[in-house]
Amino acid sequence: SIPQRFYYPDGSILSGPLGRRIPHSSRKPLRAGTKGGLANCAGAESSDGKTLPGLRYLGDERLMQRQPNVSLEELSSAAFNERLLELHEAMKHYGGIGIAAPQVGWWTRVFCFGIQETNPRYPAAAAIPLQFWINPEIVWSSKETNWMWEGCLSVPGMRGWVERPKEVAMKGLNEKGEECLVKLGGLPARVAQHELDHLDGILFPSRVPAKEFLVPQASIEAKEGWAEGWPSAGSHKTGLGELQDEK
Predict the structure, then answer these.
(1) Is 185 helix (H, G, I), strand (E, B) or coil?
(2) Interval 142-158: pLDDT, tens
(3) Would residue 195 show up in a list of annotated catalytic residues for this protein?
(4) CA distance 121 to 123
(5) CB 121 within 8 A of CB 151
(6) How far is it, in rounded angstroms, from Cα 201 to Cα 245?
(7) Alpha-helical segments (H) within 27-122
(8) Residues 195, 212, 228, 246: which is the catalytic one?
């Protein structure tokens, strides 16, 4: 079991050598730094006119490899901080609820996730406070699992019915370089596991239990035409952004 003193249900964290609790509402914003180099791929323009790196897609050789840890030297640089800002901007621009660094050609173990209000790709999902994770590691997971229609910016136009643990405890560093250990449940646990998979070169299509559980987005939108109970009872009745205990 995971010691209760290390995490809180609201997602606040125990951080730093004194174990100080930091609620989401009091976290400081990232500071701007010197712009780092971008991956050599087609980019996009953010709402404020900045050039963002383009997305990498299923089949990209480096996307499907395990990524190296962030070093202490990298972590303390202004360029690293700028890349964190850029990663968050890319997540917002491309419409994700989470994004991992390799998806935009940044070959390292970093991801962020959060939903400010609503997200049209997951209309049933509630807001999630923004979180950054550096060198994350899952140190515990529940035996209980649930299912969800997952999607991915790197696998556009597809959805997969994926089973994962309901709860996890994850440790790593936050955007300020502080050590964190947090217990996550519900959708935050789901997104964290999905993004951590990216850091190990795993994309959600490899997680579906059978080929009929990988479907086009257009099929999801035409669900009223599905046969009763297809492709399974749980998947048939579950909307985008919802979690389901039944397969």
Answers:
(1) strand
(2) 999 999 999 999 999 99
(3) yes
(4) 6
(5) yes
(6) 27
(7) 72-75, 78-94
(8) 195
